[in-house]
Design brief:
Blueprint lengths: L25 E4 L9 H19 L3 H14 L9 H8 L3 H7 L10 H11 L2 E6 L3 H11 L7 E4 L10 H10 L7 E5 L2 H10 L3 E5 L16 E2 L8 H4 L12
Parallel strand pairs: 1-2, 1-4, 2-3, 4-5, 5-6
Helix pairs in contact: 1-2
The protein binds magnesium ion.
């Protein structure tokens, strides 16, 4: 699902590298809006579904969009918001079938595959951690081959709690014993970054431009980049490596 929240707002670079890679063993990557273009989800939920819903119900498209956006906002950030079975029932539409008709629109954000290839070369453990429903995850993996770039993939639906909750992070960590002090989360959702920080993750990066069709957001409170390709910025690579003694472990 796309974010219904108003964008918040300035990055924190201060000349330091966004990620102290020498201090990181495990990389947790969000999918939609971090690796894959949120343009797909924004189009699907705020244009395609309202148009289809309006046609089925004999409504004006504008009215259908307003009504659906209100319904999306009412449960934003809860697991049901990400659940295509919830929306199939709530809207009386076959969301799985409708998603399949639009799957050709699923694509990587600029530079994401280069970033993933580089990450694999570093030898770090790389995990995809998404709120996407397992069906949506499978459909997007089939379209992009994303599974080949990561060691494992996790849907929060399998933990019965969204990434916006500390409960998710505790349940996830129980089965995946990463060291929070040596783990980075790269993510476009600020509530998710907040929950992960409260759980104890030492390093986070916010994505300012999750949708290639929209301008970057300003982000307060987290190190941020427009997109993951900036994490491969040659200027950053040239920055002196962080001494091991300065790592939080
Ligand atoms: Mg996301």
């Amino acid at each position: 699902m796309p974010s219904m929240s108003a964008p918040s707002t300035t990055s924190l670079h201060n000349g330091d590298p966004v990620v102290a890679w020498d201090c990181v063993d495990t990389v947790l990557l969000d999918m939609d809006g971090t690796l894959l273009d949120l343009a797909f989800d924004n189009y699907f939920w705020t244009e395609f579904i309202p148009a289809h819903y309006a046609q089925v119900r004999g409504m004006r498209e504008k009215d259908a969009r307003e009504a659906l956006l209100d319904r999306y906002r009412s449960i934003e950030g809860r697991l049901a918001w990400y659940c295509i079975d919830h929306w199939s029932e709530a809207l009386d539409l076959d969301i799985r079938a409708l998603k399949r008709t639009q799957r050709h629109r699923v694509c990587y954000l600029p530079g994401a595959t280069d970033f993933l290839a580089w990450l694999r070369e570093t030898g770090k453990r790389v995990l995809l951690v998404t709120n996407a429903h397992p069906y949506t995850l499978a459909l997007k993996v089939a379209e992009t081959g994303l599974d080949a770039h990561v060691h494992d993939m996790v849907s929060s639906h399998n933990f019965l709690a969204p990434k916006e909750t500390r409960l998710f992070w505790h349940r996830f960590h129980a089965g995946e014993p990463f060291d929070p002090s040596r783990t980075v989360l790269i993510e476009d959702s600020l509530p998710v970054l907040q929950a992960a920080t409260e759980f104890g993750l030492a390093s986070t990066v916010a994505i300012r431009r999750p949708d290639s069709r929209r301008p970057p957001r300003q982000i307060d409170g987290y190190p941020s980049v427009d997109g993951v390709r900036e994490l491969l910025n040659p200027a950053q690579a040239a920055h002196p490596p962080v001494a091991a003694a300065s790592c939080n472990s």
